[in-house]
Amino acid sequence: MVVARAAFPKGSLAIRVRDHLAEVFADEPFSEAFGLRGAPGLSPGVLSLVTVLQFAEDLTDRQAAAMAVRAIDWKYALGADLTDTGFDASVLSKFRARLADNGMERVAFDRLLEHCKDAGLVAAGGKQRTDSTHVISAVRDLNRLELAGESVRAALEALAVAAPLWLAGQIDVTEFADRYGPRVDGWRMPPSQTKRDRLAQVFGQDALALCRAAWAEDAPAWIRQIEAVHLLRQVLVQTYIIRSDSRGRQVIKKRDADDGVPPGQLRLASPYDTDARWAAKGDDLFWMGYKIHLTETCSTLPDADADADADADAGAGAGAGAGAGRVPNLITDVHTTDATVPDVKATAPIQRKLAERGVKPAEHYLDSGYPSADLITKALEQGIRMVTPVLLDRSAQAKAAEGFDKNAFTINWKTRQVRCPAGRTSSHWNPVKQHGTDAIVITFSVLTCRDCPFRQQCTTSKIGRRMLTLRPEELHENLARARTEQKTETWKNKYALRAGVEGTINQALDITGIRRARYRGLPKVRLQHAFSATALNVIRLDAHWATGPLDRIRRSSRLERLSYRLSA
After folding, report:
1. 313-369, pLDDT tens digit by residue?
2. How far apart are CA 53 and CA 38, in angstroms?
């Protein structure tokens, strides 16, 4: 302790973590994953602290293990003697695997959040904001042809270790070694499409032969339980189709759009990461991997005109506000999914976890990908007001800003009738289910619309009548109110508070490399993100402890100061 204090007279992040958060990194929360019998091992609490410091400094396992030996402030934080020789880097990998296998990815994050609650740094009823970003998987991108070949190769590699004699009896080892020895790579494939199609057929025939051998009655049952063999069967079904030709022979053929392909959320993208999925966002972003949603606390600023700039600083830096008594903006939830899950599907789980941990916000700031009429209504019932732009009316009239959109019609919920701008009433009111949600289809009679002078402004239907689709009354009213409110300047100024979360995403990217998965599989990627969020909170708390409320005044550059002197 004396040496660490002397070496770091002003302290360091690791030293302040030990001084303020020693009780957070205890062994007891990990007891279910680490047995009491056997030879004593390293403290799981210490390993969790090492992992947090590792992510705070964006280190590899080898670098983190080396820091635990040679860095005096790390030794102080870990409670180790100066002569302690540390541990092998592989211990960190085994520790993460143990946490992921026992569903304990968020233990350190949740304990730090609980500590911050007890310290009054976070609480229920405030303002929080959420945003998401894409995460690239830790495996290389494969097209469908590469996936087919690499899946065969992965199964052969696994069988060559687990059942070499059985494998030698099923295939020509020399031929397959020549074809699948090096990894399957598009750069090594033939350039002509005809030859590529032939290669795809060869991959399919080899996959089919392996699967038939593995699922034969005389094959050992445990062969089929090898993960790579099981995945090969899935890839075979998803990529190929077996048909009979004119002579009655079975022919394997690569699937195309007409044959039907599985949806994105079910389609395997790699034999080495079964949870990674392909997804797209707009026309420019196309990636294979995952998606992360970060939620953090946020506070209003004394100067309303400085909202956007100051909150961006709060996200990108320590997150402490200006003025006395301000606290740092801290991450309250981290939610990781595969890449195909849309943002709207993450809203309810995020709000549910915030409520379970006692940090439910009174106002939740989100972008337009998160809300729906059902979610807005349900959140209000739970005491959460979602400050978010809802999607506008997508009817042809609303998009063209011409004619009569839904707002031009008067709805009488009691009589279950709708009156059009021409003063005529609807003829049918039909409650239905659309995509699993309740809706109401309103229909006007053809006789009513045929002679209407406003028909060209109202409908372009060939039948010549107007139809409306509404949500149930409460959902419709909430949606209409939100659409009206978001057009006001007051709402736009209020919504500017959400912009700061973009800085948090950028900080997570710069410090922890959160946009690229370090590990394979959704459980371990969730663990990575949970420790990344914990590390960001530790960095923000350290800035809060070391400097107090941050000075938000932007210092002028030397060129600006010269300009001021010349103009004086």
Report:
1. 444 444 444 334 578 999 999 999 999 999 999 999 999 999 999 999 999 999 999
2. 28
pLDDT value, residue 39: 62
Residue 251 contacts by C-beta under 8 Å, 6 or more apart in sequence?
242, 243, 244, 245
What is the secondary structure of 303-342 as a DSSP string?
A: SGGGHHHHHHHHHHS--BPSSTT--B--EEEEEEEETTS-
Kind and range of the H or E run holding 372: none
| C-beta of residue 119 within 8 angstroms of C-beta of residue 288 | no
**Whole-angstrom distance, CA of residue 339 vs CA of residue 359:** 27
Cα 487 to its chain centre, rounded Å, is 29
- Written as one letter, the residue type at 177 is A
The tokens for 479 are 């949606």
For CA atoms 562, 566, 567, 568, give the dihedral sign. positive
CB 351 within 8 A of CB 371: no
Please name the residues in contact with 314: beta carbons below 8 A apart, sequence gap of 6 or more.
298, 320, 321, 329, 500, 503
Q: Which tens digit of pLDDT belongs to each residue from 240-275?
A: 998 877 777 788 888 887 788 888 899 999 999 999
Please provide the DSSP assignment of 492-508 as one string: HHHHGGGGHHHHHHHHH
Contacts with 417 (C-beta within 8 Å, 6 or more apart), sequence order:
425, 426, 429
Q: Which two tokens stand for residue 154?
A: 């992965």
In the block, residue with structure tokens 């049952």: 221
Tokens for 85, please give them: 């020789």
The whole-model pTM stands at 0.85
Q: Are 166 and 159 in contact (CB under 8 A)?
A: yes
Q: What is the spatial distance between Cα 465 and Cα 455, in angstroms, rounded to a whole number? A: 8
CA gap 287, 280 in Å, rounded: 6
d(CA 399, CA 281): 22
| Angle (CA) 365 371 373, round 5° | 130
